[in-house]
Amino acid sequence: MNPKKKFGQNFITDTNLIIKIVSSTKIDDKNVIEVGPGRGALTKELAKRAKHVIAYEIDKDLKLYLDKLVNENNNLEVIYDDFLSVDFASDDKWELIGNLPYYITTPILFKFLENNVYNSATIMVQKEVGDRIISKPNSKKYNALSVIVQYLTDVEKVINVSRKLFYPVPNVDSVVIRLEKRKNRELSLEKEAEFIKFVKACFMQKRKTLANNLTELYGKNKERVIALLRDNNFIDSVRAEQLSLDDFIRLFNQIVWI
Fold first, then answer.
1. What is the pLDDT of residues 181-219, one digit of tens each?
2. Based on the domain organization, do 86 and 213 belong to the same domain?
3. Minimal CA–CA distance to 78: which of 50, 37, 25, 48?
4. Which helix (H) or strand (E) element contains residue 43?
5. Contact at 8 Å (CB) between 192 and 177?
6. Interatomic CA distance for residues 28 and 50, integer angstroms
């Protein structure tokens, strides 16, 4: 069966890469959700280690490959449905794993972040997206996504992946990243939604200074906002990409009171 472009299918062809990915997942005797198992190359290795694997595959034409694996592994279940449309609930905790189609990486990422059923995610994404997620202040790739993901999770790069290790060969390279939910976050659950809104606003117009973006978000007097920045040892023209996660948390906790 030929890969389908409409589903963003690019199948891994390198066995060593699969073994490296599975070794990084820390899923021994744990419950796993796999997104987009494809022909089952990664699925097969996951089933060897995990307690239970549920794989979501949107392309029913892949049953030829996946049903064979189900018959060989009594801890494997394949559901032929769109992962994004499924409201998965469980009393147990699950680990999310997948070689994500590039065009739905962001919604899958946020589904993971917003659902408490998941402990961690080990995902292969477009290298540009992965580099953005793990980037640090004063980097061109550092943006709101970087800050939000790093606030909600401990994130690390596992391995760079050459485009040549896929069939068909995509136009870009990939990277595997691992994200583990942070259990002791600095803000209460009630404040987190507002904090995410705050971070997004800070980066809303990258050409503008942080003072201008915050003034627009909160409708406050610009001089008061600049005074707050100075109190935190920032120059008046500081921009969002120069701030660390701790800086954003500190400013967020103060600006609601000025």
1. 999 999 998 899 999 999 999 999 888 999 999 998 888
2. no
3. 37
4. helix 41-49
5. no
6. 5
pTM above 0.85, yes or no: yes
Q: What is the CATH number of the domain that holds 238?
A: 1.10.8.100
Query: What residues make up the domain containing 125?
Result: 5-181
The CA distance from 162 to 221, in Å, is: 50
- Residues 67-107 pLDDT 10s: 999 999 999 999 999 999 999 889 999 999 998 888 889 99
User: How many structural domains is the chain composed of?
Assistant: 2
Pair 217, 133 in one domain: no
Write the DSSP string, 146-169.
HHHHHHHEEEEEEEEE-GGGEES-
Q: Find where tokens 């997948």 sit.
A: 98
Does the CA dihedral 65-70-76-77 come out positive or negative? positive
Q: Are 52 and 134 part of one and the same domain?
A: yes
Does residue 34 share a domain with residue 88?
yes
Residues, the chain: 258
The H-or-E segment that residue 211 falls in is helix 210-218
Angle at 179 between CA 173 and CA 185, to 5 degrees: 145
